[in-house]
Amino acid sequence: MLPEFSLTEWYDISTGRLRGNRPVVERRLVDLQGCFADEGEYAALLSRENPLLYTVTAVDHSEGVGDLHYGLGVLHPGKVGSEYFMTKGHLHSWREAAEVYIGLSGRGVMLLEDEAAGESRLEPLEANSIVYVPGRTAHRTMNVGDKPLVYLGVYPARAGHDYGAIAKSNFRMIVVEQDGRPVMMARDNSL
Ligand code: F6R
Ligand code: MN
Fold first, then answer.
1. What is the pLDDT of residue 179?
2. Would you say the CB of residue 142 lies under 6 angstroms from ligand 1?
3. For residue 133, what are the contacts with CB-CB under 8 A and spacing of at least 6?
4. Is 3 within a domain?
5. Which of 21, 26, 84, 184 has its CA 20 to 30 A from that of 73?
């Protein structure tokens, strides 16, 4: 069955959202407990305000074996200490499920971490860039610019989100601003 709308027509570049009453996930600073390495800076900012970090508008047509879902993410600029505003990050519940991220506007990076080997990589995510996230790879997105970062993530309908596994160990690397640039460093040696 053909979808009921054309994604391009429904995409609103000014808000980075899809028109209509699509479910929107909103995550604020309070929802990212434990994600930022500098707990002091996190607590200090949270005591002053609880900013909106990002929204995800998900389009999930159906759960068929071959179906795809996609989500439009809008990640706002900002920092906690020297760490950029970021997404929670997750593995897919169905570990084999890969994902493609397409940058639409703004400037960001993606932190990828192989679940078995623990290897990490940082990839740019900005307008006209594409990031392939293989299966069994934890992924987290950071906004390293001063405007909202807007991107589309496309993944198998049955991928699911596993936040628990990566929250337990947290990502091994963090991304901080140094001399105006994003730098990846080991969490243990950081700050
Ligand atoms: C879906 C996906 C994205 C994220 C979005 C928010 O598999 O990777 O749509 O859901 O970038 O990040 P999380 O889900 O980690 O809060
Ligand atoms: Mn994903």
1. 97
2. no
3. 98, 99, 100, 101, 110, 112, 139
4. no
5. 184
